Protein 1
Amino acid sequence: MGTHISKEFAERIDRIARTHKAGGGFEAVGALGRLDQVKPQSSRRISLPLKALVFLFLGFFLFKGAMIAQMGEQSYLLRLTTLKADGGFDAAVALVMAPDTLSHIAARFISQLLG
């Protein structure tokens, strides 16, 4: 029984040693290894996924459509006119809440759902 190591085994040991030297390696599940010691870099900028913005955008138009469907278009427009007359921030809100094509489509859809 000698200390003879096969050529294949010696090559594998060599490859593992090179991998470890380069910073790679294997970590067993549950072991506290190198990856547990490194803190992930925190991102300084705030990122909002595109899907979230799209859903927020569509939700806003659904909200306006629901208000038009609930109040009726004439009553909705009357309230917007009152807001515009108040000036300042209320006028800006009236501008944002003005009915548009998507809001009218949403209002028709919601009206059909509610009967």
Note: Residues 50-114 form one domain.
Protein 2
Amino acid sequence: MLNTDGFVQYGSNGYGGMNRDAMGNVILAYAGSSPKSLVIYQELQAIAEGRKQAIGVGITNLEVNLDSLGPINILNDLEQSP
């Protein structure tokens, strides 16, 4: 399971997340930053990086959990990416 989040603050933007196994144990965690000051962009970066990290450790079936509907709509082609 991948849990992600992104944030935008004055002078600081970033994203992060962690992958957990079925028992809730953390398999990996990551964080990054980007100069783009759109929260939805940071959320999408968090998902992309989490997917990349998961593939890197051999995870092929990934459930993604986040607190924003916008990225989900973009990934399901219900909304356009900024």
Note: The chain is about 30% helix and 30% strand.
Protein 3
Amino acid sequence: MTFASSLHSVIFLRMSDTPASLASLAAADPRRPNAVSPFKPPAAASANDDYYSFFSLILGMLGLFMKQKWAAWAAVYCCLFSFANMRSDGDVKQLLTGVTFAVMSVVLLYLQPVADAN
């Protein structure tokens, strides 16, 4: 007896033993075919939703390099707003870079030495 013939006899025996059990399973099937709906993937969010993090980075650089206090404070505001609206899967590196530039621009603008009037 070969493997294929023994496999065929096992399948035949199983199929011949199950018509009554299949009918009872079909009657007790709790699934509702009319409630089946096709899978629709969720809409992907665009990666450019967090503009405030980008603005905090740009304004922080502007305040740091051009010594503009309004830009430094605007960068602090933008990074706080970006942190408040950040998603759980948001880009933490960009947020930390913006916070670093914003805080360092405010600190360096207010802690710079005062030039003598003489």
Note: The helical segments are 3-17, 19-27, 51-66, 69-84, 92-110.
Protein 4
Amino acid sequence: MWYGTLLMRCLLYGVLCREENGEWVMEEKLEGHSDWVRDVAWCPGIGLPISRIASCSQDCKVMIWTKDETVGGKWNSVVLKTFSDVVWHGSWSITGDILAVSGADNKVTLWKESMEGAWVCVSEVDKGQEGGTQQPQIS
């Protein structure tokens, strides 16, 4: 597991790398986006057998990448959402259960994984509305 070595790993051009003996070594190639990846956020999960990454892209998609060490340790991906415009940034809450996403549409959305494993938008703030308006979505 690599939870303690996040600073020694990077995701560049869809390639997950790790530092080994002072050199960068390709660990795995993550394919899924069709344009530039604008941001990558590692989900906090110290002590858990699951690693999770969110990637935001010029292709208007946010993808969630998950690696479960208990079932073979292969990275799997799911498209969180295809937005109407470029997605610039993703950031996990300190507990790792909520993902904030922002993009060129001037909105910030908060996402949470349901008990069934589906990602659900739990809140949306639209900067385009006067003063910004929070529109919670209850599921």
Note: The CA atoms of residues 17 and 26 lie 4 Å apart.
